[in-house]
Please model this.
Amino acid sequence: MSASTLSRTITWTSWAAVAISFAVSFGQRLPPGHRVVPYLLAHGALTALSAVAYVSLRRHREHADFGAALRTLLVAAVVARVLLVPSSAFTTTDPARYLWDGAVALSGHDPYAL
Model:
């Protein structure tokens, strides 16, 4: 793999991950019974893209484009996270529980005793 091939690989994997993250943000609009398959497919695709990016970077640490490829990957990671900020946690109720625990603790009670 040449340095330019490394950059191309990291670029397409990074921006494909951003596109999948964008699609996941719309997954919360599906009815509750229809979210599992798209959600699992998205996670499978993101895991595969992460593996490709990791192997590419690991094998080609000495290439001249390594720094540029790493920067591309980091920028795409930030963009993907920013896209998901407005999304609700539609696969878990943990955030609601944490907010309840915090409100109970702020009122001076032990949330675990309740």
Observations:
- The mean pLDDT is 84.
- DSSP finds four helices and no strands in the chain.
